[in-house]
Amino acid sequence: MDLLQLFDENHAPLFRFAYRMTGSVADAEDIVQECFLQLLKPGGSYDPKRTPIRTYLFGVVRNQSLKRRQTLAEPPSEQAHDKTPEREYVQTELEAVIARAVAELPDGQQEVLILSHFGQLSLAEIAEVMDIEVTAVKSRLQRARAGLKETLAAYAPGAGRTR
Amino acid sequence: MNDNELDEILGQWKTPAVRKAWSTDLRDALNALEHGRGFFRWLPRLMPVAGKGLLATAGAGVFLVAVAAAFPQSSAWFSTPPPYTVDAENIRYSDNGTPRIEEYFTATADYSGRKSEIVLSATYPDDLHRTIHALFMQLFDRIPWLPDDNSATIAKARFTAYLKSNCAAPERFTIGNETVLDHRTTVSQNIATESPDGKTGKVWRLTYWRAPDLGCFTLKNTTEVRQPDGTFLLTQERRPLKVTTSRRQ
Questions:
Q1: How does pLDDT run along chain B (249 residues), one tens digit per residue?
Q2: Distance between CA A83 and CA A78 in Å, rounded?
Q3: Which of B12, B29, B97, B199 has the smallest C-beta neighbourhood within 10 Å, fewest atoms?
């Protein structure tokens, strides 16, 4: 697969993953750009014998997203989902609530949930991206979903709450 | 809440669409990078075979290219002239409005996107030291740098996007269009707390007249400083004298 084909097939899901991790369009664009440039760097870290390319790309985006969040030292629910007036994209109230609930999950759980539910990665792929055991992925996913069921209970269909 | 209900709720968390301009620029940049890599890939393999002789020849070649770029009139066959040049003068205004010509220069746009322009020659009527310094700087400006890193390709892609936008810089307001020396320009303006020459402590209004057909070259600009009564006083002006188009264009 050549680089442009790889870009065409993956830049949109990677952007969505980065956006959900950082809550910022500008950060998500920078992260995806950096991700593809890393592939071209001489002596880069990608080893096709060890990791499938898709897993590698999601792994780079994950690492970059976590780095950005550490730099900001502020959870994405605060720094991006609520306070970015220049964003062209307008979230509904429910979307903001979901974004905040996911952002408030412990770090490992948040990534697992986003990669699994929104990125449609398998448990094995997520394990590679995060460099943990499949069983750990499974348990984090279960805890994340259980946590969200509680946090978002008021928004369940038929819960009697209107938006 | 059951699993299906949670999935239904999570499904409502949408993301913004990928910006077309961003993805197109990045794709173009990656394409250029990949081809650049292909072009230079043979070099490391060739070097051990050819040894020091090739290295010396390559060094001499780079030197000649640099000299030819700096002094194109001495070796016109060697270098490609820029598509156009602009002769202009920089004028400083004193507090009472008296003008003083600070600099005459000839420049062109930097189509690599690394700099806003390339100065081909410059003289400072009242400052011989600065004129000599400018001569050395022009030598560096005109060395044809190889597209050897990612930042160069990204700079080029951003510059291309800037050209496509008719020189509308995101950090400035476009306030209109004017024709300067027969070239249509995009006029943009911004308020700054630092002047272009690095002064601080006041508020400046900067206005630029950039020509899309000249690689967004700044044909004219003005710097004004805000007065206590809120009006702006002109302190500096770039005034274009002549645009010379290359015969090869």
A1: 788 889 888 988 888 888 888 888 788 777 776 665 444 444 444 444 444 455 555 555 555 555 555 554 443 333 466 788 999 999 999 988 899 999 999 998 887 777 778 888 888 888 887 888 777 776 666 655 555 556 666 677 777 777 777 887 766 788 889 999 999 999 988 888 777 777 777 888 999 999 998 888 999 999 999 888 888 999 999 999 999 987 544
A2: 7
A3: B97
B 146-185 → A contacts, CB under 8 A: 150, 154
Looking at the structure, do residues B35 and B130 belong to the same domain, yes or no? no
Query: Reduced to 3 DSSP states, what percent helix, strand and coil does chain B have, rounded to the nearest 5?
Result: 35, 35, 30
Residues B79 and B43 grouped into a single domain: no
* Best residue in B2, B4, B13 for a mutation probing chain A (most A CBs within 10 Å): B13
pTM: 0.49
As for the ipTM of the complex, it is 0.79
Final residue of a structural domain among B40, B70, B100: B70
B193 part of a folded domain: yes
Q: Is A110 helix (H, G, I), strand (E, B) or coil?
A: helix
- Which range has the worst mean pLDDT, A9-13, A97-101, B113-117? B113-117
- What residue numbers bound the domain in which B39 lies? 25-70
Q: Does one domain contain both B201 and B118?
A: yes
**Residue positions counted in chain B:** 249
Q: What order of strands is seen across the sheet that includes strand B217-226?
A: B118-123, B99-108, B84-93, B232-245, B217-226, B200-211, B183-194, B173-180
| Coil, strand or helix at A5 | helix
Nearest chain A residue to B33 by CA: give it. A40
Q: Chain A closest CA to B31's CA: distance in Å?
A: 7
Burial class (CB in 10 A: 0-12, 13-18, 19+), B215: buried
